[in-house]
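dude i think i finally got it to work??
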Amino acid sequence: MFTFVYAGGVPDEVYVFTEQTYDNLAKAGVSPLAVTDVLYAGRVVRRHIGASLQIAGRDRDGGWLAVALVEDDDDRYTVTGARYLDDDEVAAITRMRGEQS
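look at this
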C-alpha cells in the first residue's frame, strides 16, 4: 500500500460523476462542488490500491474530505462517494503532510 502527498494535482486524470455519484453524495451530505475542490486541490493525500483511489484534501471552506473513486480506464476515475473526516483522521493526515495539527 502506498500513500502519496501531492503538491499539485495530476493533470491527465479525468473524473466522472454519474447519477449514482450524485445520489451517494446527497446521502452523505457532501456537495459535488466540495468534491471537485478536493480533486483539483494543490496539496492532497492519495492512496491508490489496484483500481481503487482515495483522495483526501480540503474543500474551499477548509473542511477535510475523503473522496473515493474507481479507475474505469487509464487515468479515468468514477467518483463513488465522499465524506467529511473526523478530528482523528484530520490529525493523522496533518502528520502525514508534516504539518502541525
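The first strand starts at residue 3 and ends at 6.
im so relieved honestly
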